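Researcher: I'd like a structural prediction for the single chain below. Treat it as a standalone chain; there are no partners to consider.
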Amino acid sequence: MGSSSLSTSSSSASDEPPSPDAAPVDVSEFFFPGHGVSALLVHGLTGTPYEMRYLGERLAERGVRVRGVKLAGHAGAPEELGQVGYDNWYESVVHGFEDLRQYGDPNVIIGLSMGAVLSARLAADQREAVAGLVMLAPAFFLPPKTTTALKAVRMLGALAEKLFVYNSEGSDIHDAAARRIHPSCRLMPMTAPLKLLDLGIVVKPMLPQITQPALLIHSRLDHTCPIRKNVDFVMKRLGSPEKRAVELEESFHVITVDSEKERVANEVVEFVERFRLAPDKRATA
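Model: Treating it as a single chain, here is the predicted structure.
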């Protein structure tokens, strides 16, 4: 989820400036072949598979089979995002996971922001079918002012469905060059972050059920999902006997494309490769 102003507009989403979403990058789903271990990559709210592509390419270079999913309602018109909910987003994750399960190798789930929350839900639901979990800048909590504003909007009832958040600053990315080309959702339906809050309510109680090895990476300068609130909460409640948190110094929220994307990729690659099956074990699996 990118950093957005909570000023609202009841105008049609057709008023959205065309240039931010016309960035010359590939926002489609992706698949890279590999062997011995599979990784499912899940982007965040208002994001696209593009924000996971560099990480996917790095994993593929090491022979990891990679699937980058596009969540329902994303990479399209703002109205499309307003028409779906968190169960639809989760269905996108499950479909991607089922695609990878057919290969019979260990599966590691990697999510960014809201994608991390969805990935945690999958790890809790699928248990032993998920070998490991990576949560990048998880969005279990938003800044207090944002949460308060969203709760006020919820009180508007059906009117909230006609409101859009205008984001004049682009995505929460420190690196100027990366921010410049990053596909941004200038108009976000107000119901979208409300549904993210609802998703968090569902998944938070599931964290103790997650026992797979887990890696958590978050930046201290994240403006979208405060580091202490999210990292401390997850590390305290996560049921994994083996869990590790890495704190970044320079990046903002979209850490997969930001200043420290190399470190993020290195940490994730090292974590994923530990689950790789040796050739003889694959033959008997």
